[in-house]
Design a protein that fits this description.
alpha+beta, 28% helix, two-stranded antiparallel sheet, 9 strands, elongated
């Protein structure tokens, strides 16, 4: 069986494909990583890594979050890659706003490439903002370029499985004072005493 690390080779191939098809090969190379994140499908970091042999050399990072891959198609996941590539383009060729803010320049570039920026991920959402996603424009440049890549047999092989709810450990538990009914939250292993009643909260 092929090494699981070929997933990174596939992502590097996808980056090169979209760089040529959508950005005229103008983007600098980045280190593509896979890492879990609870609030994002992917993210971009400027100068995320320094070269071990030359401290003045840096590379940016594009991270895809495999815990969000379940139930999403390869096209959906690749659209996240291109979303982050637009951030890369803007930091090297445009004018990014404050950290994390998706401005009009970014939104216009996204739309021109066939990804409609949307705060909700659906038609009618805001085009700019601090937390943004997008949806694929049918027949747009990304849609066409993605279909060309998938037609070569390119596929993602791995995803982080979702944890069944019954296996998720509770990080906070509700405690109630049996006398005054005061409610507090703490770790499940905590022993709490109500300050007013001096009763053990359960």
């Amino acid at each position: 069986m092929a090494s699981p690390n070929t997933e990174y080779t596939a992502l590097d191939q996808a980056f090169a494909h979209f760089n040529a098809a959508l950005f005229g090969s103008a983007l600098v190379g980045v280190l593509i990583t896979l890492h879990k994140h609870t609030r994002a499908r992917g993210y971009y970091r400027r100068k995320a890594f320094a070269h071990r042999g030359a401290a003045e050399r840096f590379t940016d990072e594009i991270c895809l979050c495999p815990n969000t891959h379940c139930g999403r198609s390869d096209q959906d996941i690749l659209s996240t890659l291109v979303h982050e590539m637009v951030h890369l383009w803007q930091f090297h060729h445009g004018n990014p706003s404050r950290h994390g803010y998706h401005n009009r320049e970014w939104a216009d570039r996204m739309q021109a490439l066939g990804l409609m920026p949307s705060s909700t991920g659906a038609p009618g959402g805001q085009r700019t903002g601090q937390r943004m996603t997008h949806y694929v424009i049918a027949g747009g440049r990304f849609d066409v370029a993605c279909r060309e890549l998938l037609a070569t047999g390119w596929r993602l092989q791995w995803e982080e499985p979702e944890t069944p709810p019954e296996l998720v450990r509770a990080t906070r538990q509700r405690f109630v004072c049996p006398t005054c009914r005061l409610i507090a939250y703490s770790q499940p292993s905590a022993w709490l005493i109500c300050g007013g009643c001096l009763s053990v909260m359960r």
